[in-house]
Amino acid sequence: MKKLLAAVTALALLVCSAAAPASQIAAESVCTPVGMDISGFSTLDFDQNHVDGSIFHHAALTVINFWETCCGPCISEMPYFQQAHDHYSATPEADVQVYTVLYVGESSTVPEAITLLQDYSFGKLIMDDVLAEAFYATEIFPGMLAFPETILVDSNGIVRYHHFAIYQNYNELNSEIQQWLAQVPPVTPTEPPAPAADGDADGNGTINVADALLCLRAAMGLLSFTEEQIARCDMDANGGIAISDALTILRSAMGLLND
Q1: How far apart are the two ends of the chain, measured CA to CA in Å?
Q2: Of 94, 193, 224, 256, which one has the greatest count of Cβ atoms within 10 A?
Q3: Contact 124, 41 (CB under 8 A)
């Protein structure tokens, strides 16, 4: 069965009123979430895994679609989000990720959503109620709701665009993604710090006389090394710090180690 991913997310609002179809609400009368910071949520997914606003840091642009199980138009456009997810998951350099938000209530439950998604080969999604509340349980979004809706969010969790309508095809969805992707800064991957070299007692990235003196003091019992320091300064790998280790580090600092 084709899985929608670990990355496609359904967020659940626990307080539900009957949602009006999009055709009953004029788009211009709906308050927009554009400009809202929605990064402050923290919740659990269907499998009780932790999910929070750090998801936005993983891509320059995050696509989030709001839907419910009793919404026919929502289901009809789901394949377009599946296609977008598949495409951008296969091309991580594109800097886009795709999620969906499940609205939960009497007519739209989590078990129904899981069954529906499996029946349509969309796999299992992640649930989050906090993010949904950030939209619908505030004065910014009063009154009735309409589905489907889609937002585009930048890497800081700021909503850049609000699409209040059904997507007619994948090209329409992807065109908007590309348009807004060009307007947000790319995410610059953070390289993990390089591990400290053997002999670098103080972990500052260089090996010098100060490292040798620290090692000597540790060998004499005048200070205690952490496990990481011991691992770096145990030059003969005998499990402890001795004066011989300090001398080896000193020779390395003076450029004499290979003489």
Answers
A1: 63
A2: 94
A3: no
Alpha helices by DSSP H, the chain: 72-90, 110-119, 130-136, 170-181, 209-219, 227-233, 243-253
- Read off the pLDDT of residues 58-72 as tens digits, 9 standing for 90 and up: 999 999 888 888 889
Cβ-contact 245, 215 below 8 angstroms: yes
CATH 3.40.30.10 fits 20-181, yes or no: yes
Per-domain residue ranges for the chain? Answer: 20-181, 209-253
Helices (H) and strands (E) in the chain, counts: 7, 8
Residues 6+ apart with CB under 8 A from 118: 1, 124
**Structure tokens that stand for 101 in this block:** 């938000």
Nearest to 71 by CA among 30, 98, 105: 105
* Rounded CA separation 85/62 (Å): 11
Q: How many CB atoms lie within 10 A of CB 160?
A: 17
Rounded Cα–Cα distance for residues 26 and 196 (Å): 60
